[in-house]
Amino acid sequence: xxxxxxxxxxxxxxxxSIKVARFVFAxxxxxxxxxxxxxDLLEYNFPIMEERLHHRDDPPPxxxxxxxxxxxxxxxIIVAPEYNNGYPGVLKNALDYLLPEYERKPIGIVTVSxxxxxxxxxxxxxxxxxxxxxxxxxxxxxxxxRVRDSFRDDGTPNDPAYEKRAAVFLDELLWFAEAxxxxxxxxxxxx
Length: 191
Prior knowledge:
Blueprint: E1 2-3, E2 6-8, H1 17-29, E3 34-35, E4 38-40, H2 41-44, H3 63-72, E5 76-81, H4 89-96, E6 106-112, H5 120-132, E7 136-144, H6 147-150, H7 161-190
Parallel strand pairs: 1-3, 2-4, 2-5, 5-6, 6-7
């Protein structure tokens, strides 16, 4: 079974990206052979990073729990809103606490914007950051424009096109997750 957590990458008041995270979570839960959970950064409330986890003997509360989930993951999904043409600082902070935990993991990126471009600047930056962490951002993405109008609070899309787009996005993420998990298993059995 693949374990693919979803990182909710904003803690802002009245954040809209959580609606999209709930939608992706519901879709991923329905996939056979997948275990998932929503890792909402609002619930973790990490302080500003002073040092990576593996260099600390006094980690902030819940950081080790979070790190263990990321380390165990076969792939990750990041759901991030675009703020000021970038991604939230709280997400960068959470990502920076870890490093070896991301190595060779496929990353699916879902971006959200209040306007009409779906967070493409955020998407481009997150692809660079995840590559720098040693992860593999998948080619497919799921940008969401005009999020207030596009999704209800419970994560239900107002436009049925998001159902199809999410299916294509998740299909590709699962392809990469399965391919890399298979390669890792072969490498482990031959050593």
